[in-house]
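Sanity check

After download, print the first record. It should look like this:
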Amino acid sequence: MIKLVCTADNHLGRYYGKMNLRQLGERRARLRQAFAETVDFAIKKRAHFFLQCGDLFDRESPPPTELTFVAQQFHKLREAGIRIYAISGNHDMPASSDGATPVRIYDALHAAHVFNKRTEIEFDFVKVEGTTVAIGGIAPDPRLDPGADPLDGVTFTSPQADVSLLLLHCGFEGSIPSDFAETILPKSRVMEMQCIDYYFLGDIHRTHKAIVEHSTVIIPGATERMTFGEIEEKPGFYYVELDGKNAIKLSHQSIEPQPMRREIIRTTDIDKAEPTEYVYDKLREWADKVQLMQLRIEGPLEREVYHRLRFYDVWRLGNEINFYFDLDRAAVTLKGEDSQVIGTGEVVSIRYEVDRVADELATHREGDDRALIEEARAMVMGKLGREE
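Expected structure tokens:
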């Protein structure tokens, strides 16, 4: 019996621009914990192989903390007698050269077998309980256009083995999101390559399994939800048991993600007299200290109500009562004086808002403090004038 664990899109060291240092540190720790659960599962199951299909790291130069953590996890796998195979992903693959991707460090240390070539599939052959297993892989090529077949023009020698596995980092026809902009493995290519029995694909954060004639395509998905757009996804990895080419078990193993919530407030529901307090009440109703929350406010507002709705205070409260809070007000528009929406909404003038805020601040300041506000106003207005 051949046993293996397949993971992808762990995105260790992911950067969130709107998080403070505390939030970022805790969020990255959660990403590491999800990967550690995958490793522990492989050890518990006494797997023969641990497959990592790209985007182990979120960028090509991950922080030392993440590099050290992976070294420790790979050491645990090696101590348990588990062979590690990996490829780079589009996030941790340098676009400018075939140079040292971060995962290649572990190949150089003989901690993992990393497939580095972009135009040739390499195979490694391992005998497991009398069964010859061929494991191949190819690194993603950033020079390819979105939607291109990642195996078009790729060279390889058909492996002579009892069962053959191939690691890729790309989309798969019929299972990609609408905004996907990477290479896509077509079903026709899978049907053509009859020498490959199992395809393991990273890149798509949504888990998926497909049977294409003689082959099985497995997408493990990400080990954590990375964005609010993935709120419906189930993070995890795949556990596989094979008897030669025959699948005994193909099982997606879920990992409990950090709680995530998305809510919408429509401006037509907001109390015009106390708009900020109305939003406060809703936030307190939805709050959870461990969750990532996004609030979207959308619709038209009268200018007076817009100015009474203190967006900064809303954002600050949201971050106080949740682990992380994102306020999306891109869909808020202003009504005209006749209370009719102007087109798709009046664009809020940045210069007007700067003047309004500066006036409010200056009203309560005197002397040097007031002079400093006026100096700041002049500097901002000057910069806006140059950019217009």
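If your output differs, re-run the checksum step. Summary of this record's structure: The longest helix spans residues 21-44.
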